[in-house]
Amino acid sequence: MSLLNKRDKFATNLGVLAATLGSAVGLGNIWKFPYFTGQYGGAAFIIIYLICVVLAGVPVMVSEFIVGRRANSNPVGAFKKLAPGTAWYAIGYSGIAASFLIMLFYTSVAGWVYSYIFRALSGTFINASPEMTIGVFGKLITSNYEPIIWQIIVLIVVSSIIIAGVQKGIERMTKTLMPLLFVLLLLCDIRALTLPGAQMGVEFLFKPDFTKITREVIIIALGLAFFKLSVGMGTMVTYGSYFDKNQNLPGTAVKVALSDILVSMMAGLAIFPAVFAFGFEPDAGPGLLFITIPMVFSKMPLGNILLTIFFLLTAIAATTAMMSLLEVPVAYLVEEKGYSRTKATLTSAATIAILGSTASLSANAGSLLGSIKIFGKTFFDLYDYISSNILMPVGGLFTVIFIVWVLGKANLAAELSNDGQLNNKGVINLFYLIVKYMTPLLIIIIFLNSIGVLKF
Ligand code: PFF
């Protein structure tokens, strides 16, 4: 192979870890995981979540790494290469569709986060009353242009990193940003945990309450495991295709899953002790991030600096996650359609900006777009629902079926042991058992349940 058409790759093990963790750690850690944990039974929810991570999240992640690295290709090309003349490549298209749909609403929320860095920095929330803080968010999302401008700024930032390449863009940025995110989060944790009354927030997060575990909660935990670990939509196939042959695939997946949970818990510990210390109600999603947090942080000594830091770290988390989402269509357009990397990135980003504006504008219930409902959902919710509840579980399910029944155990063992270099027969047998029986069963039961076909 000539040097010119050699595929760009991650250069170091640390780079692989930073990039993959950068994809996993995102808005999900900050506004989904902590709230779900507190709301659905603390440590009891964490146990259910961990079961979903062990039986579905990590196995699907490893399966995607296998497909990507073995084929050395984007998701569509990978399935075409590994199963020529079949329709398995449809999984690749489903992945591209899912990552695209996620980008439509994710870039919108990321835009709000970016704008809050500047709002915090300029002192908007210092001494603001609750009404004023609610008003700031209301004004942002009801504006017809501001959210779209921020969404475009987000896309410009992410696109410039993607255009720079896998090694010079994604790897270099995540290697710098992930440690920074960790340090900033640690600062917020120390401040929150040393507030008088912090104890109640810690209890809200961790006190186990098994009575809260219902079937809905199990569905939520599985969906969260997929979303959190960025699996079921081709992201990890794409990143896996940039791993070299010596990368330990199961080891990488386990490290990413554990670090991701650690970051989620650290986010919870930065948020809830402070929320309780100041007597606020824990909220979820936009309410937590854009209203409760500014109100709570602005009440602490040095709160405004901390608030700026908090939004900065949230922006970092969202940005590294979006890099992996944008890389999916970009790798496809470059390898399957012959686009240059720059053209592929700009085409994808422009399409996301145009379609994504429907997500941004539909977040305002009073607007024309906000009043349009498809299957009872706004554009924003629809993109989230189709990607998280349909495309991701289905994509994950077919990926594990593919590696068991099409690739087969011998190929799988070769990939997991790096062609016999690693002495990990036990891991291989365990992995095979899980992906052959447990992962499909778990996904099928939960999926049928969530779309209402099966009731238990
Ligand atoms: N894992 C990211 C989060 O928790 O916010 C979201 C995400 C990124 C989902 C990349 C899917 C993906 F491909």
Query: Which CATH architecture is right?
Result: Up-down Bundle
The main pleated sheet reads as: none
Global outline: globular
CATH superfamily: Amino acid/polyamine transporter I
Order of helices and strands: HHHHHHHHHHHHHHHHHH
Distinct ligands, ions and cofactors found in the model: 4-fluoro-L-phenylalanine
What count of structural domains?
1
Task: Give the percentage of residues in beta strands.
Answer: under 5%
Q: Would you count the extended β strands for me?
A: 0
* Sequence stretches where pLDDT stays below 50 over 5 or more residues: none
Question: For the CA atoms, what is the radius of gyration?
Answer: 21 Å
CATH fold category name: Amino acid/polyamine transporter I
What does this structure look like?
By secondary structure, the chain is mainly α. 77% of the residues lie in helices and 0% in strands. The chain is globular. It starts with 12 loop residues before the first helix and ends in a 6-residue tail after the last helix. Helix 6 (130-142) crosses helix 13, helix 8 (166-193) runs parallel beside helix 12 (249-277) and helix 9 (199-206) crosses helix 12 (249-277). The model has no long low-confidence stretch (mean pLDDT 92). The protein has helices at 13-24, 27-39, 43-71, 75-82, 90-121, 130-142, 146-164, 166-193, 199-206, 215-228, 235-240, 249-277, 285-297, 303-337, 341-362, 368-371, 379-416, 425-450. The chain is built from 18 helices and no strands. The chain has one domain: Amino acid/polyamine transporter I (Up-down Bundle), CATH 1.20.1740. 4-fluoro-L-phenylalanine binds at residues 23-24, 26-29, 99, 102, 227-228, 230, 233, 235, 321, 324-325. The site of 4-fluoro-L-phenylalanine has 16 residues, from helix 1, helix 2, helix 5, helix 10 and helix 14.
